[in-house]
Amino acid sequence: MVEVTLWGSLAATAGGNSKVEIEAKDIRELFRKLAEQYPGLEPWIDQGIAVAIDGTIYRDTWSKKLPEGAEIFLLPRLAGG
Amino acid sequence: MAGVAVSTTINGDTVEFLCQADETLLDVLRDRLGLTGAKEGCGTGDCGACSVILDDRLVCSCLVLGAETEGRRVETIEGMAHGDRLHPLQQKFLEHAALQCGICTPGFLIAAKDLLAKNPDPTEEEIRFGLAGNLCRCTGYDKIVRAVQDAAIVMKGA
Amino acid sequence: MNFDPRFSGRKFTSVGTRPIRPDGIDKVTGRARYGADFNMAGQLVGRILRSPHAHARIVKIDTSKAEKLAGVKAVITAADLPDLTDGDAAMYDVLDNCMARTKALYDGHAVAAVAAVDARTARQALKLIEVEYELLPHVTDVDEAAKHTAPLINDTIFTEGLEEKPVKPSNVTKRSQFGHGDVHQGFGHADFIVERSFKTEQTHQGYIEPHACVANFSSDGTADLWVCTQGHFVYRQHCAQLLGMEASKLRVTSSEIGGGFGGKTHVWAEPVALALSRKAGRPVKLVMTRDEVFRASGPTSATSIDVKIGARKDGTITAAEATLRYSCGPYAGSWAEIGAMTAFACYKLDNVKTVGYEVLVNRPKTAAYRAPSAPMAAFAVESAVDELAKKIGMDPVDFRIRNAAQEGTRSSYGPVYGPIGIGPTLEAVKSHPHMKAPLGKNQGRGMACGFWFNFGGQTCTDLNIGMDGSVSLAVGTVDVGGSRASLSLVAAEELGIDYAQVKAIVADTSSLGYNDMTDGSRGTFSSSMATISAARNAIKILRERAAQMWDIAVDDVVWEKGHAIAKGEKHGNLGKLSLKEIAVESGKTGGPIAGHSELVADGAGVSFATHICDIEVDPETGATRVLRYTVVQDAGKAVHPTYVEGQYQGGAAQGIGWALNEEYIYGKDGRLQNPGFLDYRIPVCSDLPMIDTQILEIPNPNHPYGVRGVGETSIVPPLAAIANAVSNAAGVRMTHIPMSPPRILAAIEAVREWSK
After folding, report:
1. Which residue ranges form the domains of chain A, and what is each CATH number?
2. Which residues, at least 6 apart from C61, have a Cβ–Cβ distance to it below 8 Å?
3. Rg of chain A over all Cα atoms, to the nearest angstrom
4. Looking at chain A, which residue has its C-alpha nearest residue C333?
5. How far is A41 from chain C (nearest CA, A)?
6. How confident is the model at residue B1 (pLDDT cuts 50, 70, 90)?
7. Based on the number of CB atoms within 10 Å of its own CB, is A7 exposed (0-12), middle (13-18) or buried (19 or more)?
8. With bands split at pLDDT 50, 70 and 90, how would you rate the model's confidence at A9?
9. For domain B4-79, which architecture applies?
10. Which of C653, C610, C657, C638 is nearest to C710 (CA)?
């Protein structure tokens, strides 16, 4: 079980929860279960979400493991210059 | 519209071409003669990327008509090195990394060559004002000024 | 992928040196080929007709007269670029921006295009296209556009991110929020509070090379595109999607690029050139004029930002809050969201809240500009931080050091930081001689901090070892400022050979797998990781070949300093084999030797900088002069330090232009009044001093060499550093960027009036 924190705007689509508990071993499973439990999140996930694991930001690396007790933070996908 | 026949000297070689009366020297160089070293950054004489030397005078080739070069001498970036021997300015621009994207570099080299021909020992301020007609968006000019300073030292010793 | 990207703390031989770049000679001799320097046999000239109106319904376009003009080979409108985006809203916006469908949404919006035998004919043809417009009310100011009474730019837009879906459409496309703690409570604990509103005007990336491409659509359905771009793989995807092609049928070659800074990260005219070529059956060259570049490409957001920061007497910030409104042009964007994420990222805050609003205006589609959205937020926040320090009576550097984020701090945008460089840059600034240099009359010193995320992403590299022992390195990230030199250094380092033995090129889209573009400061970070990985794969093969040459087990062969060495006593007489000696025999030992790498580079590591600036203000005219400028930034590891310095200096110079001069000026008619370098004045050589740099190297734990992105962060602090310097010099707080002489003079005179 990992605790996932959603940024402000995303929390609104997850029924107002800014923190959700998910049983997931990697980013792939995290996205799948988030979409199942909170259908409002699905379009955001499709658009692209970044996942910060202990402060390091990952994009679409599905296989990335979510260590037990790690701080998981969902962030919007960014543009750069 | 009938073309104008022009005979001129470019980088020491006699060149003859036909161009429209309203065609700029920059367009002639790039589109008719294949000399694409001069760049069009604005077409209005504001950026200096198309700088060439016309009879010892630094000009924006986008503000000169091709037909105006009849009987005159044009120096472009393509004529700056002697064979495989780079001009000291070219060498110093490389050593100082005075270019990032490099689009403004031909114009800067031509303008710097003209500057040093007229003032072989410029102060930093003279270099900065001498090159103020050329825009660079990458470097902040620091390394360009240093490269010109260094080239001036080399050229004085030559 | 079994590549281990962790930092290993090795000693470097090549990395950290400053050799001449491999593309250098071509660039100083005029031979390098940029977007407009390429030609094809039978090529036509493409030109685009643009709306002169800020907001208008397109009632009718009659192209018949233009089509009849001798020498015109194709005329296209939106009908020739039908919507194939299949519900992809972002791509639909890109399409509509390339060629307006039902409405022209800004002065300069493309409405039709022609391809003709020469430029003169193409220009004549544009004049023969008759467009009937029904003018609509327009709005170009970000604050005006956000009002309920503003003309609606898109009546299908309902603000996203609100708790309840709004009942009326609006120009505000999205609200986003970040932060933690309770700011209300935090302000309750503050002894001092600064609260101010700031504005920044719209600026352009100002690359010297206008957008340019040559498109060649073949009758067999394949196409080639030569183009200046920050990401040829991204352009391939965009163009293929918009033209209904399979991506592999479109080969995109990136020319040398004459500056991008974010402005060449998505397509503008390239699909138009391809559509013209498809219709005409001939190659088409399309080059924007400078006027078109300003009116119809780029710019960054104009912003309006409210900031409130509170602190205790001891200098501890108790709460920080910001509301940020960013213009997006006429299409939805996420620019305020990024501003809201970055605004307070430098600080350790218990209570922080930022809210961003994306606002539609009748201006060109906002594009990324170097650390997009961060400089404006930093301007507002760092100005307020400076003012708060002054109120408390603390030195501005000490105040920032006291509140700086550090390893373990929860960032204002959410996650907890790993090892970061904000503290060290502040300490370096505190002890920098620049901070102690004397100042004269009417002179002021300012400093400010800046933050930027860096990106990684999808990356491919091929490393081929020739039979003469030379190495060709093919990368897929466009080289915008010397990365071929850096990547050659990395290949040389990993293989243990000389830099001169390596030649790096940027390969086209048919030669490598997909690469993300050169944005988010990712070029050298990502491609160096892929290059290290490719080199390690090549070394594995080199060891196998050496083992074969020696007829021993591969496990007995190690790679050291460019040589295969047989280890163990039984092989004591074998000596060593150089890379070249192994390569010479490669035809007999199994064929060409190469290393490939396809990976997602993750863990780019956030970046911080602190800048110091001295400004002189003429109190009679409001004119300013930058006297001295210093950049301190963390690079993780500077692969080619000269080019890292170049990134620092270039970003600072762009920031100086933004702070003091550059702005889009719109008339009441909604038309851009200064679409040229004469009236949109970027800094020239005589405007600037030397820009000193100090590179800090706090290794990124997620890169084998410790590399972080360096390209963007340098543009984040200047707006605020200069504003603080001007405020200190002139004795007035400047809240509107750019601080042009009339604005500074007005601020000075307002204070004079007030003190009378």
Report:
1. 2-76 (3.10.20.30)
2. C77, C111, C112, C129, C130, C131, C132
3. 12
4. A79
5. 12
6. low
7. buried
8. confident
9. Roll (3.10)
10. C638
Can you tell me the ipTM of this complex?
0.98
Instruction: Decide if pLDDT at B158 tops 80.
Output: no
Percent of chain B with pLDDT over 70: 99
Read out DSSP for C354-382? Answer: EEEEEE--SSPPP---SSTTHHHHHHHHH
Q: Cα–Cα distances in Å, from C115 out to B24, C72, C466? A: 21, 6, 44
Q: How many CB atoms lie within 10 A of CB C67?
A: 15
Reported as a single tens digit per residue, the pLDDT across C233-274 is 999 999 999 999 999 999 999 999 999 999 999 999 999 999
Closest residue by Cα to residue C414 from A39, A9, B18, B144? A9
CB contact under 8 A, C28 and B37: no
Alpha-carbon torsion angle C289, C295, C299, C305, nearest 10: 160
**Cβ contact, residue pair B78, C482, below 8 Å:** no
**Type and span of the H or E element at A9:** helix A8-13
Regions of chain C where pLDDT drops below 70: 1
For chain B, the average pLDDT equals 97
Amino acid code (one letter) for A14: A
Taking the mean position of all CA atoms in its chain, how far away is CA C716? 12
Look at residue B116 in the predicted model and tell me its pLDDT.
98
Cα–Cα distance between C228 and C504 in angstroms, integer? 18
Non-local CB neighbours of C689 within 8 Å, separated by 6+ positions? C626, C627, C628, C629
State how far the Cα of B133 lies from the Cα of B45, in Å rounded to an integer.
9
Mean pLDDT of B105-130: 98
Residue C295 and residue C108 in contact, taking contact as beta carbons nearer than 8 Å: yes
Which residue segments constitute the domains of chain C, with CATH numbers given? 24-32+456-601 (3.30.365.10), 139-418 (3.30.365.10), 427-448+605-756 (3.30.365.10)
Q: Is chain A adjacent to chain B, meaning 3+ CB pairs within 8 angstroms?
A: no
Q: Give the model confidence (pLDDT) of B52-75 as tens digits.
A: 999 999 999 999 999 999 999 999
The rounded distance, in Å, linking the Cα atoms of A67 and C242 is 41
Fold of B88-157: DNA polymerase; domain 1 (1.10.150)
Domain with CATH 3.10.20.30 in chain B: 4-79
Which tokens in the block code for residue B80?
């700056």
DSSP C34: B
- Would you state the pLDDT for residue C649? 98
| CA–CA dist C748, C740 (Å, integer) | 12
> CB A80 to CB C371 under 8 A?
yes
Contact (CB, 8 A) for C418 and A54: yes
C28 to chain B: which residues are within 8 Å by CB?
86, 90, 93-94, 99, 102, 105-106, 109
3-state secondary structure of C294: helix
